[in-house]
Design goal:
rRNA processing; rRNA-processing protein FCF1 homolog; PIN-like_dom_sf; nucleus; alpha/beta; Fcf1/UTP23; single chain; five-stranded parallel beta sheet; 29% helix
Length: 183
Amino acid sequence: QGKQKKARKYAVMKRMISLRDERLKEKDRLKAPVKKKEDPSAIKEREVPQHPSCLFFQYNTQLGPPYHILVDTNFINFSIKAKLDLVQSMMDCLYAKCIPCITDCVMGEIEKLGQKYRVALRIAKDPRFERLPCMHKGTYADDCLVQRVTQHKCYIVATVDKELKRRIRKIPGVPIMYISRHR
């Protein structure tokens, strides 16, 4: 004794009358859109993002050892929590010489964090890190990194921030390095 199967009732849904139905009055009918003639002398506009020539097919040809790695604030903090030597773990990951680069914005962000993050500040001031000057206004590090990576495709971005990773994935030819499971 199971549940009886009910047959679907016919025409349960209200049917829509087509706008071209002859039962409609003339004023309610759909009028065919009038096509505009294109001017051959007019400039055709189309938004097509130009990919740089360094992206031969889909691979970035500017990227090669020694790798320049743009480091984000939270990447330094997570490496401290995971007890990783930053430069050594980068070299272990890529099997090549790595030059960690830190921008003025990231440096300013670490300095703003205060006394609690003094270890991160000491790591950022390491002589092995290359310091990149910023010429823009504002000190928002994420915008700075995205702008720099868009202009020059020779960097790998090291970050743990999900929002920044999402933004960088939209830029073709830019690899992302991150820390997961203490590696």
